[in-house]
UniProtKB/TrEMBL annotation:
InterPro entries: Ntn_hydrolases_N (IPR029055), Peptidase_T2 (IPR000246). The record marks 221-222 as: Cleavage. Substrate binds at residues 250-253, 273-276. Belongs to the Ntn-hydrolase family. The active site is at 222 (nucleophile). Keywords: Autocatalytic cleavage, Hydrolase, Protease, Signal. The keyword Hydrolase applies. It comes from the Eukaryota. This is Asparaginase.
Length: 370
């Protein structure tokens, strides 16, 4: 018999102060596995095409879980899913699109990633090359571009006419609002730079609120995709073009192992989307998989990972999708203006199923932000 909240003893032991006082959904039990092979990823809508492509590839016995992750993410890169994946989206302050991606193997737990990748469209493919052809985990910027060219990828412009028009509107029509600058002069909320940093006193009681304000930032979609092949081997990966009008050089959580996605084939996998600048401070996907290891079911594992972030940053937009090694799955979310969704297809399913996930609401008494 479970607890009155439907939580396992392991979940209560780990996070009783957080969970026991929350108004949880009527059930926090994971959804059953549809069977292998299986693909599950963040978001529905245009992201469903990636789910279908990866799943249909897995039906061929010569396609691995890693292959399926790369195939699914590549589809989103080529289709510019929701403008948040692939070329032509999310320009930085200089009106340039750069890409982040990571792919991880659940057997060896080896991952390959690229951050701030410039002038190469197939970011997940370059991440796969990092995984297979180096002993490194992460390459960044122009030197990641050079690595990609050396490995046969084509160099081309990621910025489109639509990108430039959007950026011009942001600069000239919206006076560089919104942006990600803080503690600068002139006040970033009032206009464009150039900006000069203001002196901060780390001994001041106001310091923590200045460096980590709980302002809700524009949420961002990312594809984080997990696959289980017919033999039960798991892989995971993430691809994104980052936050719109970011400070040039910014890298989000997508290429960070354990943040945007994570997999241990002995336990399960996780994919994440949302405000990567906050999420990467918590490594939510690593946390979620460790929650599985400690006995939580996938939905409990996702809730715990989200709650850890919301307690410090109540306005954070986050979506965490978790699948265990058997294919049971669940998710938790916070801070979205609408409903967070994830998509899955497995076993003998004829079509992808999209699941809506409500936002978690945390009472003020549980929030620990300074």
């Amino acid at each position: 018999m479970g607890s009155p909240l439907g939580l396992s003893k392991a979940a209560l032991a780990l996070s009783f102060q957080t969970v026991i006082f929350l108004s949880l959904p009527s059930s926090v039990y994971a959804r059953p596995s549809p069977g292998w092979p299986m693909v599950i990823n963040t978001w529905g809508g245009p992201f469903v095409n990636a789910t279908d492509a990866a799943y249909e590839a897995l039906l061929r016995r010569d396609v691995s879980a890693l292959d399926a992750v790369e195939i699914g993410c590549t589809v989103c890169e080529e289709n510019q899913c929701d403008g948040s994946v692939g070329f032509g989206g999310s320009p930085d302050e200089n009106c340039e699109t750069t890409l982040d991606a990571m792919i991880m193997d659940g057997v060896t737990m080896k991952s390959g990633a690229v951050a701030g990748l410039r002038r190469i469209k197939n970011a997940i493919g370059v991440a796969r090359a990092v995984l297979e052809y180096t002993s490194h985990t992460l390459l960044a910027g122009d030197l990641a571009t050079q690595f990609a060219i050396d490995n046969g990828f084509q160099e081309e412009n990621l910025t489109t006419d639509a990108t430039l028009a959007r950026c011009a509107t942001w600069r000239e029509g919206n006076n560089c609002q919104p942006n990600y600058r803080q503690n600068v002069s002139p006040d970033a909320s009032a206009g464009c730079g150039p900006y000069t940093p203001l002196a901060l006193d780390s001994s001041s009681p106001d310091y923590f609120g200045l460096i980590a304000p709980d302002a809700a930032q524009a949420s961002h979609d990312t594809i984080s995709l997990m696959a289980i092949d017919a033999a039960g081997i798991m892989a995971a990966g993430t691809s994104t073009n980052g936050a719109s009008f970011k400070v040039p050089g910014r890298v989000g959580d997508g290429p960070i192992t354990g943040s945007g996605s994570y997999v241990d084939g002995d336990v399960g996998a996780c994919g994440a989307t949302g405000d990567g600048d906050i999420m990467m401070r918590f490594l939510p996907c690593y946390q979620a998989v460790e929650n599985l290891r400690r006995g939580m079911n996938p939905e409990e594992a996702a809730y715990d990972a989200v709650l850890r972030m919301v307690r410090k940053y109540p306005a954070v937009a986050s979506g965490i999708v978790v699948v265990d090694k058997d294919g049971e799955h669940g998710a938790a979310a916070s801070g979205w203006g609408g409903t967070f969704t994830y998509a899955f297809r497995g076993g003998l399913m004829n079509a992808t199923n999209v699941v809506g996930v409500p936002n978690i609401c945390v009472p003020d008494s549980l929030k620990t932000q300074p």
